[in-house]
Amino acid sequence: MPVVIGEIPIKPGRRISxxxxxxxxxxxxxTFHRQIxxxxxxxxxxxxxxxxxxxxVARHLDFNxxxxxxxxxxxxxxxxDLARSAKLGEQWGYDEINxxxxxxxxxxxxxxxxxxxxxxxxxxxxxxxxxxxxVSIDVTVKHRVGIDxxxxxxxxxDFVGAIADAGCRTFVVHARNAILKGLxxxxxxxxxxxxxxxxxxxxxxxxxxxxIINGGIKxxxxxxxxxxxxxxxxxxxxxxxxxxxxxxFDARYYGEPGSPKSRAEVLDAMLPYIRxxxxxxxxxxxxxxxxxxxxxxxxxxxLGLMTGLPGARHFRQTLSDSKKLASGDPAxxxxxxxxxxxxxxxx
Length: 347
Fold this sequence. Notes:
By secondary structure, this protein is α/β, with parallel strands linked by helices. The protein has 2 domains: 16-254, Aldolase class I (TIM Barrel); 263-345, no CATH class. It is 41% helix and 14% strand. It is built from 18 helices and 9 strands. α4 links the parallel β4 and β5 (96-101). The protein is globular and about 55 Å long. The protein starts with 15 loop residues before the first strand and ends with a helix.
């Protein structure tokens, strides 16, 4: 069994969550984030049904128990394949299955899933129903407010209505259109204008559904404003680049008493996890998941911990030093912390 870091949180509501982000929100990133916030919902990177049904299941689904509450995001468009994959997710202990209807990348489009599924609401409804019939945990959908030149609110309203008829009760709304041709995934996160009012209208039109808003949200003040209109807020890249923002979440949004861990305590809490993972899966480990785990596989997610503080650049430089990383010594975290001003290092 994976090492357990700290106390496993109870399953709270999805008031605050961190978005699934390819190449970023892997199990190491999520374990690190869990040292900062106990109750925020985390989502895996998108895992395709093909990867689960024909690939290494353990490599894609293994996680640390401390990551709960944790959702598995699936990519696919065949109801039977999604049902089998959702069942695997439930068997591995995930708290939720989320269907990706929002990714605009051409690679995903070639597989006929992601954002292009918004053009086929009945197919999405069939997929949701198949998964709900296969599992007892929640099945949710993450989607955009439109695709290409579909600018009307009616488009997303009708999409949500059709999926809700199939039994889905939770929708994560990335409040931008997805441009399927001509924009990269990065550009799709920045160029299409934000339409927060569409998510707000969905909540008014479907008051019994759980509507979670996503896209361009960076501050606590912005989160507070959105929560006056919808049920939850999902953060994306801000949570990755400025992770200590999440230190305020448990008290502010979940009523958790006490103070969060300091940045130094977060680093200290990660040391046993890093040592355990390197011993289990590091270079030369016979049973390595993915094989050849290196120190940088974990520490790369921690570079933003000191964002906004004096000395943050020195902290990042130390954690990025290729020679020091090659040594594989987790004490590198303590060396990086020592380069911060003393008062901040103890904060």
